[in-house]
Amino acid sequence: MRQKTKERAAPGQTAPAATLSRGTGHYLLEVGCEEIPARMLARAAEELRVLLGKYLATYSLADAGGIQAYGAPRRLVASIPALASRQPDSRTETLGPPRAVAFDNVGAPTRAAESFAAKQGVRVGDLEITSTPRGEYVVARRLVHGRPAREILAEIVPRAILELSFPRSMYWTRGNGARFVRPIRWIVSLLDDKVVPFAIGDIQAGRFSHGHRFLSQQEKIPIARAADYLAQLRAHFVLADPEERRDKIRKELARLVAQRRLRLRPDPDLLEEIVYLNEYPTALLGNFDEGYLELPEEILVTVMRGHQKYFAVEDRSGRLAPHFVAIINMKTDPGGTIRSGHERVLRARFADAQFFWDTDQKCRLADYLTRLTGVTYESRLGSYFDKVERLRRLARGIAEQWFNSGIPEADLPTADRAAELAKCDLVTEMVRELPELQGIVGGLYAAEQGEPVSVSWAIYDQYHPEGLDDSIPRNLAGCALAIADRLDSLVGCFSVGLVPSGSSDAFGLRRAALGIVKILLERRLTFSLSATIAASAGLFQSLKPQIEVSPEAENQVRQFVQERARYIFHERFGYGYDEIDAVLAAGADDLVDAEQRIAAVRAVRRTKNFEPLAVAFKRIRNILEKAGPTEEWRLEAVSRELLGEAAERDLLAAAERVSKEASRLKRAGRYREALEAIAGLRPEVDRFFDDVLVMSEDLSVRKNRLTLLAQLLREFSTIADFSEIQTENSAR
Amino acid sequence: MKKNVKRPPKRKGLTFQQLIFDLQKYWSDQGCILQQPYDVEVGAGTMHPETFLRVLGQEPYQVAYVQPSRRPTDGRYGENPNRLYKHTQLQVILKPIPDAVQDIYLRSLAAIGIDLRRHDIRFEEDNWEAPTLGAWGIGWQVLLDGLEITQFTYFQQCGGLDLDPPSVELTYGLERIASFLQEVPSIFELRWSDKVSYGQVRLMEEQQFSAYSFEAADAATARKIFEMYEREAMDLLDQFPELEESERERFPVLAAYDLALKCSHLFNVLDSRRAISTTERAAMIGRVRAIACRVAETYLAQRGQLPVAAGQERR
Fold it and tell me: Nearest chain A Cα to B79, which residue?
């Protein structure tokens, strides 16, 4: 006997009379942990919220919107103020045997009916009949009482906790024991004032929490009621809610610097990290020896921020001041013990930096060049020394392009010198110690050693822009160097098959390509993508380590860069993808020029002739595609004799006239007017399609007409390929 | 740029040797055996067989020892107040891991005179990894008023093998802690004993070993010795699977491990001579790791905790 069982909540089942009252309760979960890494806390809390929401929703107890989740270093917390005390009742329907099997011909229940009823826990007399597409069947309907929330919580909460994903988790008892981001040491699980019991590994959930590791006077804190949690912890010097911690830090930072008439160097990322590094944050102002201000600010700030997580402070004129703000995880610093400790650590760090500076200055930047032979860029692409050899020539070539295009300040020797020194800082003590300062250190050393400002700036800025929101190099030599460096990486990597795919992009090639595009567009620099790629490929072939770069690799690089350009045109300039694609299809070797053409397309597309013309061009393209291989119909030139219809003669005449005009305008860079001129062809094109049958019976006439259309498409698609434009009635 | 301000001589905090006494006393009281430093050059206390081998397998073990650790690239000729060619670690291994391990550790700070309620002590994420040993763990650096004083690691893998049960490894940086306690601006000004300074005891060593590893060491020779040690280690390890069960107990896996340590140190010397390119670097680390991983497998197989065959397949 086949049974179909389906369970579903009956419709309109919000408050059935039979159920107990459906009140709400406050549930609180605290997973007490050893210090969870700051960078993971906020995300873990959010994930906990979503997971609990997902599970609770399946039992109709709550949804993610009613859950608050947050964390502090030693705890991950979820709080659900209005959790339904029990699951709603539901009705289940279980389909049994067909009526004919369940009841005999006098209507008495058979063995089948009896056994089905017994299995479903209903009396035979309560079985009902339901009609289905397959006939009448017996059905057992039951009212199922919802389970209490505490029972459900005990099942789903441990599941949600263990389901949290962390970049790296660990085990701490046995190999098959619990895994989590750090050892779990206690769990608070309270529904109002009652413990909801469950266990994770050896840890039983209960009501005991722990306060601040050093400030709390009590080893264990019994949480009386879920709603009291935050206040009770606050009394034991734990601000469990990150908002409270952020607020305390902000206020104290502001107060401290205001007292000294100083200003904070804003650092939102650092603030966010610090919020999750402390349970009871307190700001403290420390000092350092003014003598260290002789070191460049960049170095001092990086040491303070990166190593010590201190905020830098400046005076009213914006100069770095000999102070710092540390956020400590304590309430006070009686006698300034903590402050002087932090000051000593910073002094040692600065002394290190000073030592690196002095050591590095013992020789000149250029002296480090030969050491670059020992620093591999990529095993097949040679050393950084080899890269520098290529960069010098490529940066020079780029500067030359700009000079020839009428930018007189594009200076070849400056670009060359900047490229020569660009990578020397990689082998300095300072960059080995503070790798995030590569480029910057080179620039600082160049300035210190009397290189021209244009050279030191170019070196300093070479790794910018780091992203779409970062600034580009300040001067042209910097732009030439930055582009040369990135293009060299792209051409090199693509030629040895290191092509980014999915999330893998070890050499940061996507960012490199974005950087090139951003620099060119922001400074409006003339630039031939294909010629520069070819130049770079030539350098790889002629210089050590002499890598063969295939034409496909060159093409791939060009398309890769254009793909980034497409993204920027859309995201940053707000152009439609069809406008961008229309121009890219017509060729976009110079991105600034391409941008101007896209702007022109955008400007004229709303004019009356443009879209209909775009439709017509699409039609032309379709006709040509269907006409078979080009060589079967293409004539050397359109034959006037074969143009029998007035409409086609007029079209040819108009096309010749407009073509001359459009080329003139295009050469002058007046793309908008050129496009408008082309759009003026619309009446002739329309009339052509009204009056002329392209696919004429007469083969020579047909070939002539196809050739005319092909010529039209070719001549008028050099600014943008109109057939890419999405139109109202285009079917794309 | 002026040099650090001269301070009046203070006699604050424990001497360097008293610090060692007190920490050893504390951990001895916690039930640790006190071991001695290993007599082969190592880059960290982890490389002492009392850590590398003892964390493997199931037997409980608690040990503490001091380990002078050589890091040739960190040498500064004794001119930098905070950097040393050879610094001193105090290493503690606890297997299995006590539930209250963080508190037990923190009480050791109290034992050396640090008032936990008057300082800013925190555990900041720092996952430790020793690629030459195929070892890694999850944990923190412990910061005392912003100063990194201990590496606190839940050891997860060693010699490429999952640890079951895991161990906790506590590594105290003794010079840092002593500088903190004595409030001196330079390690070399530390009082080693009441009468003798750290500089008097160690400066000569810093100068000479910096000179050796940055200038004098012959890269070709170091490379050659590296290869000889590597060969010897591998030849040795190859013999183990051939042995009858009764002969396995006296198989010198400890000697093979010493050879791996020699290789590791020579790699560091080559690195300080900047004789290794980035790619070669990864390859050489892999070669040392290969020995270390086979040592770990052989050690367990010898003790009957890993089938001999498993050690062979992993190669």
Answer: A355
Chains A, B: CB contacts within 8 A come to 128
Is the distance from CB of B15 to CB of B191 less than 8 angstroms?
yes
State how far residue A575 is from chain B, nearest Cα, in angstroms: 44
Residues 6 or more apart whose Cβ sits within 8 Å of residue B211? B77
A371 and B5 within 8 Å at the Cβ level: the answer is: no
Output the pLDDT for position A17.
Answer: 36
Cβ–Cβ below 8 Å for A277 and B124:
yes
Question: Strands A128-132 and A135-144, how do they pair?
Answer: antiparallel
Mean pLDDT comparison of A676-680, B14-18, B300-304, highest-scoring range:
B14-18
Q: Is the pLDDT of residue A405 over 60?
A: yes
Cα–Cα dist A648/A690, whole Å: 11
Give this complex's ipTM: 0.92
Q: For A125-144, what is the mean pLDDT?
A: 88
Tell me if the bond preceding A465 is cis, omega within 30° of 0: yes
Range A366-572: architecture per CATH? Orthogonal Bundle (1.10)
CATH numeric code, B218-313:
1.20.58.180
Helices (H), A228-307: 229-235, 242-259, 268-275, 297-302
- Report the pLDDT averaged over residues A703-731: 84
Angle at B15 between CA B14 and CA B20, to 5 degrees: 85
Instruction: Give me the residue spans of the domains in chain A.
Output: 24-87+148-235, 90-144, 242-350, 366-572, 594-724
List, in sequence order, the alpha helices (H) in A471-585: 476-495, 509-523, 529-542, 551-571, 577-585
Per DSSP bridges, beta strands A75-84 and A24-33 are antiparallel
Residue A143, SS3? strand
How much of chain B exceeds pLDDT 90, in percent?
A: 82
What average pLDDT does chain A have? 91
Minimum-distance CB partner of B164 among A175, A183, A215: A175
**B interface test, pick of A200, A344, A380, A427 with most B CB neighbours within 10 Å:** A344
A375 CB neighbours in chain B (<8 A) are: 277-278
pLDDT tens track for A479-515: 999 999 999 999 999 999 989 887 778 788 999 999 9
Cβ-nearest to B81 among A173, A329, A348? A348
| Of A210, A206, A171, nearest in space to A75 by CA | A210
Each residue of A262-304: pLDDT tens digit?
999 999 999 999 999 999 999 999 999 999 999 999 999 999 9
Instruction: Write down the domain spans for chain B.
Output: 16-213, 218-313
From residue A4, how far is each of A11, A104, A129 by CA, in Å?
20, 21, 14
Predicted local distance difference test score (pLDDT) of residue A10: 37
User: At residue A6, what are phi and psi to the nearest 5 degrees?
Assistant: -135, 140
CA-based nearest distance B164→chain A, Å: 5
Structure confidence at residue A729 (pLDDT): 55
Bridge-based pairing of strands A203-206 and A382-383 is: unpaired
The highest-level CATH class for domain B16-213 is: alpha beta
pLDDT-derived band of residue A352, with 50, 70 and 90 as boundaries? confident
pTM: 0.81
pLDDT of residue A292: 96
Look at B82 and A183 and tell me if their CB atoms are within 8 Å.
no
* CA atoms A661, A665, A666, A667: torsion sign: positive
- Give the Cα separation of A183 and A163 in Å (integer): 15
Residues of B in contact with A295 (CB under 8 A): 1
Given a cut of 70, whether residue B146 has pLDDT beyond it is yes
Q: Please state which architecture CATH assigns to domain A594-724.
A: Orthogonal Bundle (1.10)
CB A101 within 8 A of CB A83: no
Check for a shared fold between A366-572 and A594-724: no
